[in-house]
Amino acid sequence: MRLVWLLWTCACLDAAEPVDWILSARYVVTMDPQRRIVANGAVAIRRDRILALGPRAEIDKHYKARRRLDRPQALIAPGLIDTHTHAPMSLFRGLADDLRLQEWLEKYIFPAEAKNVNAEFVRWGTLLACIEMMLSGTTTYTDMYYFEEVIAEATRQAGLRAVLGQTIIGFPAPDASTPQQALARAEKFLEQYRNDPLIVPAPAPHAIYTTPDDVIRSARALANRYGVPMLIHLSETRREYDEALRKRKMTPVQALDSIGALNGRTLGAHGVWLDDADLRILKERGTGLAHCPSSNSKLASGLARVPRILDAGIAMGLGTDGFAGSNNDANLFEEMDLAAKLQKVGTLDPQVLPAVRVLEMATITGARALGLDKQIGSLEPGKRADLITVRLDAPHAIPMYNVVSQMVYALKGSDVNDVMVNGRLIVRDRHVLTLNVRQVLEKAEQYRRKVAASVGIGLSPNP
Amino acid sequence: MRLVWLLWTCACLDAAEPVDWILSARYVVTMDPQRRIVANGAVAIRRDRILALGPRAEIDKHYKARRRLDRPQALIAPGLIDTHTHAPMSLFRGLADDLRLQEWLEKYIFPAEAKNVNAEFVRWGTLLACIEMMLSGTTTYTDMYYFEEVIAEATRQAGLRAVLGQTIIGFPAPDASTPQQALARAEKFLEQYRNDPLIVPAPAPHAIYTTPDDVIRSARALANRYGVPMLIHLSETRREYDEALRKRKMTPVQALDSIGALNGRTLGAHGVWLDDADLRILKERGTGLAHCPSSNSKLASGLARVPRILDAGIAMGLGTDGFAGSNNDANLFEEMDLAAKLQKVGTLDPQVLPAVRVLEMATITGARALGLDKQIGSLEPGKRADLITVRLDAPHAIPMYNVVSQMVYALKGSDVNDVMVNGRLIVRDRHVLTLNVRQVLEKAEQYRRKVAASVGIGLSPNP
To answer: What is the DSSP letter of B300?
Structure first.
């Protein structure tokens, strides 16, 4: 079947319209409402926007590009969207694995954070995470950590798009000794980054079990005042769920809703323990969720009811979560594969979460969870030019019978070849164009020595 | 702590002994009985064997190498062992995903096999799979398919080690119209490859529900006569288990045992549905198992009780299984990561299967499951020189606090840099030295067109 494509052409059909970029590839995976895939396709880009897309021959006829990237052995897809990370924790990668949450937190992570996390740590950790994310196809990420204004600087330097949540928590944190200080910090951050083309600043109360209700309420008010989302961990563990029931006679979702915390755009991370009443509340409030399959499985938090949640009309994206304990890398290709497999084995139904729904989670549904689906998440005229090329010529990528299935189950983060965010090419042929990678890796190695010494891990390689 | 290492030194200490290879790296992960990891280590190799290993300074002092490979930014590990594959099915990669087993088999796989599988198909499919396996660190694989003598030729050409099981099944197959013909084929194959340095030939009755008992008995006798293992699918699905209980009043393991099929070395693939009595039988018979986490999750077969099986003293390795429906690639790094995560979330215990046990499954325990642990599975003097180097300088591999944890949760198949099998370097700097990769990929693309046409899949890319 031949696709008929609406082109935004200029009035005079005989004169090719100038554009900044034309990218062409064997397939363009649009993730538009029809989930169209264009064979031998191309995308025309002007400044930060997609101007047109369609068959390459048509695009080349109507547009004249200042620069081009022709990738006949690759596909073009929307940049992937990570809806939950703690980017600077990349410097704690695999610091302590295979432990129970409490031991992991109390013996390793809290001491390591107390002794190491400052503005410089956060800067280098973010740069490392950004390199890893862009090299595996992530163009937008969502963060919850400390010194978020430093994370914003590093993210702009990398050229990535991000929703950055300044953490607000009920005990002394590396960047604020009280929740009131954290709220003030968040407000300053929101003021500083309002209307930024790449950064959406957000307040991020940690969770209902760590942050007082009145502080969460203030964070909500702050988010609404600036028209940004609020980020919060939500119903991640059985313990959180049971404790809420015991102490408040409400589920975590009900508790948040009862204090008005869901009145406005919210992104809840995890959503593992949700009952049907919770889903009705989340749907009604338009709350988005971040599904973190690596984290939920590695920490044994449980299996989110992803198909049920999506069927309820709730936007649930994918998240990689932190780099220590919960995950060890920030690779959405792995999260896609894992999300599909966990649901199938967890429900004993191989059809419960097909590849296309998983790819939606990593793109358009993730964008919807963040309230950014007008700007990103699919390749459509008028949207921001956030896109990746993924090579199709690796041995593990041949043969290909179904493009979407191949993306979810066979292609790897390492197949990502080029990355563009907001019309700016930030990775070309796997070379990061925006950062000094060698310098960042050297810094990361220096931090390793410091962190290891601070928590009494020797440099012995033995397990 | 400084490791004291026993070196097999020549009598005269002042004269360096000549060897064929010295490989050095930042770490040598031995997987020996003490699971020792040597920092700044080296391995000396003569012909097909490891002669010595230890700190690089010691090895360099005692041995003089004809050729060397120094990888200061990598680790050296035993080559990974895949205990269950259907290599030629690489040409069906992702042919039909997200389907129920019966629909998948009857509508796609059986027709596709009937119309396409012949000796040439098997040859090119095996070559493609071998390229993919070696580029993700697999040095030994275990196959169950048709035309196994062609698979053996292709495997020798690739330079990989393999246990190759000629399928024997109770209905007409691409290479034999009766089980008797298949048995004769298997015997000829066993005769042809007895005492091969790389290939262990094996009879592979498909499963108890597809192969008559007397045929399985004959296969068992054949295996014992030649001193090779028998391969069989075993307790993969709930349906197989329930059917055996209904028809035979026995579990699949009990049924196999009751006909004497486990009297001799056996490798059972999957082992998802096993009760405690089954485990006692398998332990007593010395039967090995292949755990296939991608396949068991993607096909929704269920979660094997891996920790319980290992605790029972049964050797359970890792397998990637086929490339269509059950998995889409042959990458043991992904299987390691998935095996650990599935167990944790399936049992809600983050400590139930730590990284080191998973790495054991992919190396020494896998070797034990195949009865090859005297030859392969760890780096020790006297063992075959099957080893890989894995780069540690990718952004997702930095920082590193624990070598084993990093291997299982952070490193990728794409980090594999060099591969040696039986003392022969077959991959160097990710270049396959033994095969014409471009030619194989072109052939695979030709087969894609043929296969797609044969099952009525158009070339339309739409999902």
So the answer is: T
Question: Which residues, other chains included, contact A247 with Cβ-Cβ below 8 Å and sequence gap of 6+?
Answer: none
Backbone angles phi, psi at A137, to 5 degrees: 95, 5
Interchain CB contact of A331 with B (< 8 Å): yes
| Chain A, nearest residue to B340 by Cα | A298
What distance in Å separates the CA atoms of residue A340 and residue A357, rounded to the nearest whole number?
Answer: 9
Using a CB-CB cut-off of 8 Å, the residues of chain A touching B300 are 344-345, 347-350, 352
Task: Say which DSSP state B109 is in.
Answer: I
Per residue of chain B (463 residues), what is the pLDDT tens digit? Answer: 344 444 444 444 557 999 999 999 999 999 999 999 999 999 999 999 999 999 999 999 999 999 999 999 999 999 999 999 999 999 999 988 888 777 887 888 888 999 999 999 999 999 999 999 999 999 999 999 999 999 999 999 999 999 999 999 999 999 999 999 999 999 999 999 999 999 999 999 999 999 999 999 999 999 999 999 999 999 999 999 999 999 999 999 999 999 999 999 999 999 999 999 999 999 999 999 999 999 999 999 999 999 999 999 999 999 999 988 788 999 999 999 999 999 999 999 999 999 999 999 999 999 999 999 999 999 999 999 999 999 999 999 999 999 999 999 999 999 999 999 999 999 999 999 999 999 999 999 999 999 999 888 765 444 4
Tokens 């010691």 — which residue? Answer: B58
Give CA–CA dist B250/B259, Å, rounded.
12
Residue among A301, A351, A463 whose CB faces B404 most closely: A463
The three-state secondary structure class of A85 is strand
Contact between A441 and B395 under an 8 Å Cβ cutoff? The reply is yes
**Residue B93 near chain A (CB below 8 Å):** yes
Coil, strand or helix at B350: coil
Q: What is the complex's ipTM, to 2 decimals?
A: 0.94
Among all residues of chain B, which has the CA nearest to that of A348? B300
The CA angle B255-B261-B267, to the nearest 5 degrees, is 100
How big is the CA angle at A314 (ends A313 and A320), to the nearest 5 degrees? 140
E runs forming strands in B371-423: 387-391, 416-421
Task: Tell me phi and psi for residue B205, to 5 degrees.
Answer: -60, 135
Q: What are phi and psi of B290, to 5 degrees?
A: -115, 115
Q: DSSP 3-state assignment of A230?
A: strand
- The mean pLDDT value for A207-234 works out to 97
| 8-state DSSP, A137 | T
Q: CATH homologous superfamily for B80-369? A: Metal-dependent hydrolases (3.20.20.140)
Domain(s) labelled CATH 2.30.40.10 in chain B stretch across 15-78+378-432
Smallest Cβ–Cβ distance between B403 and the set A404, A410, A463 belongs to A463
Q: How distant, in Å, are the alpha carbons of A221, A373, B297 from that of A263?
A: 9, 20, 38
Neighbouring CB atoms inside 10 A of A449's CB total: 11
Is B460 an interface residue toward A (CB < 8 Å)?
yes
3-class DSSP state for residue A7?
Answer: coil
Give A6's contacts (C-beta < 8 A, 6+ positions apart). Answer: none
Q: Where in chain A is CATH 3.20.20.140?
A: 80-369
Query: Across the strands, what pairs with B391?
Result: B74
C-alpha distance from B264 to closest chain A C-alpha (Å)? 32
Q: Is B448's CB within 8 Å of A398's CB? A: yes
Those residues with Cβ within 8 angstroms of residue B335's Cβ, 6 or more apart along the chain or in another chain: B292, B293, B294, B318, B319, B320, B362
Which chain A residue's Cα is nearest to B331?
A396
B15-78+378-432: CATH, from 1.20.140.150, 3.40.50.2000, 2.30.40.10, 3.30.460.10: 2.30.40.10
B1 in contact with A at a CB cutoff of 8 Å? yes
Enter the tokens of residue B66.
């004809």
Contact B361, B354 (CB under 8 A): no
